[in-house]
Write a structure and sequence with these properties.
globular, 20% strand, alpha+beta, seven-stranded antiparallel beta sheet
Length: 276
C-alpha cells in the first residue's frame, strides 16, 4: 500500500522524539522543487477564484522590486515544462501572481533589506490561519513572533539563510491537526473552543505543509513555497505510525498545543490513538 504521507512530504513529520522546534531541512533536487498531482486543476481553480474575489487578502507586495519575482516565474515555467506542461503567454500582471496561478504551491519572496530577511512579496491563497497582510514587510523574527518558543531557532534560521548558496534548495515539513479540511483556513478560526469529535478518524484532519526554501541567483533573495496536504486522520494514522503521532502530541508544550489549536482536543485524541 502506498504511504501517502511519505510520498507527499518525502518522509513522516513524526519521528517519535520529544517535540521541539527544529529547522529539519534536507537538500532537494531542483527537479523535485514543485509538486504536480491529480489535484492541480482543482487547486488552480480555487486560486483563480480567490485572486479574483479577494485579491488584497491573498496577494501583497511591500516593495516594487520585481526582479526576484520574475526569476521565480521563470523557474516555475521551467519546472512545469520539465514535467511536460506547456505554459502559454503570461498575462500582463505581477510576475509572482502569474507564477502562483501556474502551480499548486503558495509563494513568498524574502529579500535581504538592511541586513534582515524581509517578506517583500507573497501570494498565499491557502494559509493555515495566518494573515499575509499582517506579515508583509516584516523580517523573520517579527513574522514568527506569535509562535511560542520559536525564538529558540530564529538565529539558526537567519544564519542558515545567509549561508545558502545561490541556486541551493532545501525542503522541510510542518504539521497541525484541524477540524476543517479546507485548503484555506482563515486566521479567525484559531483557538476556537471545541471538544474532541466522536469520530476523530473522520472529523480530525492531519494538515501538513511541504515547505521549500530556494536561494535565488542574486544571493539576496529567497523563494519560500508552501504546498498544503491534508488527510482525514483515520486514513493515515496507521502509516504515521500512531505511536509517533501520540509521542508528538503528548510532548507538545501547552502553549504550542494551544497555538496549533489542538489543546482542547489533545486528551481525547490521545485516548483515541491508545485504543487503536
Amino acid at each position: 500500500m502506498t504511504n501517502i504521507v511519505h510520498e507527499a512530504l518525502g518522509g513522516s513529520p513524526f519521528d517519535g522524539r520529544e517535540f521541539r522546534w527544529r529547522l529539519g531541512v534536507r537538500s532537494l533536487d531542483p527537479s523535485e522543487w514543485l509538486q504536480i498531482d491529480g489535484q492541480r486543476d482543482r487547486d488552480l481553480a480555487e486560486k483563480k477564484r480567490l485572486l479574483t474575489a479577494r485579491f488584497d487578502d491573498v496577494a501583497r507586495f511591500a516593495a516594487d522590486s520585481p526582479g526576484a519575482s520574475i526569476e521565480v516565474l521563470g523557474l516555475a515555467v521551467e519546472q512545469l515544462e520539465l514535467h511536460g506542461i506547456r505554459v502559454g503567454p503570461v498575462v500582463d500582471e505581477h510576475p509572482l501572481v502569474a507564477a502562483a496561478q501556474l502551480i499548486q504551491e503558495d509563494l513568498c519572496v524574502m529579500e535581504m533589506t538592511g541586513g534582515r530577511w524581509v517578506l517583500t512579496a507573497g501570494v498565499v491563497c491557502f494559509p493555515t490561519r495566518w494573515d499575509l497582510g499582517e506579515k508583509i514587510g516584516l523580517d523573520l523574527a517579527a513574522i514568527h513572533s506569535p509562535v511560542p518558543g520559536i525564538k529558540s531557532i530564529s538565529r539558526n534560521l537567519d544564519r542558515f539563510l545567509e549561508r545558502m548558496r545561490p541556486g541551493s534548495l532545501v525542503v522541510r515539513a510542518n504539521w497541525s491537526l484541524t477540524r476543517d479540511g479546507a485548503l484555506r483556513l482563515e486566521p479567525t478560526g484559531r483557538q476556537a473552543p471545541a471538544t474532541t469529535p466522536d469520530d476523530p478518524g473522520a472529523d480530525v484532519w492531519l494538515r501538513a505543509e511541504r515547505q521549500t526554501l530556494r536561494k535565488l541567483r542574486s544571493g539576496e533573495a529567497i523563494c519560500f513555497t508552501i504546498r498544503i496536504h491534508r488527510w482525514p486522520l483515520g486514513d493515515v494514522v496507521d502509516e504515521l505510525p500512531a505511536s509517533a503521532l501520540a509521542a508528538a502530541l503528548s510532548t507538545l508544550p501547552e502553549e504550542i498545543a494551544a497555538y496549533k489549536d489542538i489543546e482542547e482536543i489533545r486528551t481525547g485524541l490521545l485516548e483515541w490513538l491508545a485504543g487503536r
